[in-house]
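User: Can you write out an input/output pair for a complex, sequences first and structure second?

Assistant: Here is one pair. Inputs:
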Amino acid sequence: MDSFPASIRFELGVYVDIFVKWLYTNFGDFFDAVSSVVLWLMVNIENILLWLPWWSVLIIVLLLGWRFVSPIAGAIFALMLVLVGSFGYWDHMLYTLAIVMASVVISLVIGIPIGILMAYSTHAQSVMRPILDFMQTMPSLVYLIPAILFFGLGKVPGVFATTIYAIPPVIRLTDMGIRQVSKEMVEAAVSFGSSSWDILTKVQLPQALPAIMAGINQTTMMAISMVVIASMIGVKGLGMEVLIGIQRIDVGRGFEAGLGIVIIAIIMDRISQGVANRFKIPS
Amino acid sequence: MPVKIEVKNLTKIFGKHPKSILDKVNQGWSKEKVLAETGHTVGIRNASFQVHEGEVFVIMGLSGSGKSTLIRCLNLLNKPTSGEIYVDGENILDYDKKQLKKFRQEKLAMVFQHFGLLSHRTVIGNVEYGLEVRKVPREERLSIARQAIANAGLAGWEDKMPNELSGGMQQRVGLARALANDPDILLMDEPFSALDPLIRRDMQYDLMELQSQLQKTIVFITHDINEAFKIGDRVAVMKDGVIEQIGTPEELLDAPESEYIENFVRDIDRSKVYQAKHVMFKTTVLVTIKQGLKTALNEMKTNGISSVFVVDSERRLQGIITIDDTVAAIKEGKTLRDILRDDFFTTDTEASLQDLIPKATDTKYPLAVIDENNKLLGLISRVSVLSALV
């Protein structure tokens, strides 16, 4: 058997290392700034969640489920949370919720403007499309490498990696939602002398809202699916418990924590879908 | 009437480098040749026309004739490749962004084929839109919008969503939205094409009714020649991006300048287009009420007619007398007033021949055309009603 000639060797990894080091040395302050903003956001969300009495969380979930899904669903969601609490994972669940929420907030703040830009500029779209494909096909573990490099261990790189993994749907669906707005509707708005800002805020975004809401739902789901992986770089929460369960071959512990993640995923999915349905434009 | 809109040598080419194709188009390359050799589409070729204030100007053509492209040039939804568009004497192509915005907000409003309503807003939310972008205070714009909705016959539907309304009602919202802005000019891009025929007829009627009160300048696009002739003061016929002929419906019927238009008007029901004023004749053979019977008899004899209309000194219609009655009355010593008859038909100048046909077949006298003061303007012989149809 002929193996691949060793003489043909392109040391791409070396250049990547050089590039990342260059980024780190030249933009260190930038990463520090980003890091402190993200940390501030995370800590505040965590503090608010931890400050809430446990029963008030149940009531909030009950009411959200009642309002946006169905009364029975609200009750079931609350019972499911009681189950997670009974595993002894109440605080872990809140930590997980906090990282998911922080990542989703950051995804929206960055993703929606990028989606708008893509909808407005075909050039931007053709640049962004392959990047998004790349982000979605890359194994999510790989995001941990730059995350650690830029932000070390802990919450911030967890949010960073989760955001990168979770952001593509909201970008794509914002882009698609705006592009799908009927041409005549936009023409009507232009014909009345609307400014570009009027058209974006009074016509395109409201019309794209159902698609954007679907994007938020998907982004949330992807963020949740990232929590176990993020725990590898020290993010506390249910993911960490699963990881510990794996490392110690503690099936029971892993199962409990895993079930907790599933429960959070179901509740967030149903409620965010219910909210998204509220924004559907009847046609 | 003063000119409201004047379009001069307007050309619109779609494609990557429209300006570079302009010379070839001006040299008279056909649409197909331009498309095949350059990949550009000629939308409008050298169109010129004027629209007068208060006029309903209809642009008619089949799909692909460039009529929608043309109307979109008038508010610069489409940017013309070359040419000039004057509205109230100002070339709107010279406007900067701010002036253009103001022009669109205040001078004109557009009604769309598929209504173009914002489906996420209520009826009133749609109608107030134009005022909202003009930054009219909320209370004021809501009251204007409410009035516009009431005028469109949709009172009580303010808080419904557009999808809860029928097509005809949706287009009424479109019209209310346009009129809420109180524009001088109304651009209507096939506004009734998407509606079913009965609703369409109602809407056409309502539009004509509205126009008789508001006297806006209306540019109206349609592919339906019956609609064009019904509502248009003047009609421009477009084909392949070229305006083939501009004229009143009667002019197009009587003197079509091309085979294309001839084919178009062949299907037209002439009795709907021709009105009383087109077929009436002005007569001097009249008897005034103060004249004697002998004069009347003489008048009928010299003109070889068997009846004559009687008017007063102001030419107001009093009645009709027949030659038989006149002869008998002279023998019996009666006066003209004794034998006046009123079993004839009157009509106004706007009545269509279609409406006159039953009258013409129902009487032995000519039809009298009168104005609102009962003044006799002319007569229509029964023959001319029936012969105008062929």
